[in-house]
Amino acid sequence: MNKAIALVTGGASGLGLATAKKFCDHDITTIIIGRNESKLAKAQEELGPNCHYYAFDLNDLPNIPDLINTITTEHGKIDILVNNAGINMKKPFIEVTDEEFQQIITTNVFAVFSLSREIAKTMASQKHGAIVNISSMASQYGIPKVIAYTASKSAIEGMTKAMAVELSPLGIRVNCVAPGFIATEMSAKALNGDPERKQKVLSRTPMGALGTPANIADAVYYLASESASYITGTILPVDGGNAIGF
């Protein structure tokens, strides 16, 4: 049986790296995509022979079809897509410029749309595939100073449902993982310098701790696997109960 092939965007660090590690550890050929070639090479070294990488800036929308064509030519197919790459910006709402808002929407929404569209064409010809989008509990909450990120992740959740309805009849399942507060470099910067905010986060998380990147990777792996073969269009919070914490 041919090995499954997964593509993980933003796979050189954080949640993407944890997801790529989970796939590689389960003998899935895993292709990571990112902008920084040295970070990609370091991740590939860490992940071993099941990992391959392509350095590519996903904001370069016109060249995404060529990228996917190259990958499918070299690897034969793509079974799993994890749309993990994303950027954030912390800034008061009234100070965010049109250009800053647009940049986050381009990376977090347009790139996900373009990449998913091109890979869905390949998956449709195979009559199978799994797409897992990464959202955020920011889409469910009103969190100050992240207006563009919140808008982008709300869009991802809506797109997940719309994609699932159109693509599931073609054999392509589409789901979404919505991480809560996860201990990554990005969140450490935000929370460690703001003890009050960190205490607020932990006090309303019933499990009483931040999540780990591995917690997210486990959820993504499940939704991408045959164990989830009758699940599509779902948004799975992985948040230690934060959404229902009081």
Automatic annotation (TrEMBL):
The keyword Oxidoreductase applies. InterPro entries: NAD(P)-bd_dom_sf, Sc_DH/Rdtase_CS, SDR_fam. Coiled coil: none annotated. Gene3D superfamilies: NAD(P)-binding Rossmann-like Domain. SUPFAM superfamilies: NAD(P)-binding Rossmann-fold domains (SSF51735). One of its GO terms (molecular function) is oxidoreductase activity. The keyword Oxidoreductase applies. Pfam families: adh_short_C2. NCBIfam families: PRK07231.1, PRK12826.1-2. This is Short-chain alcohol dehydrogenase like protein.
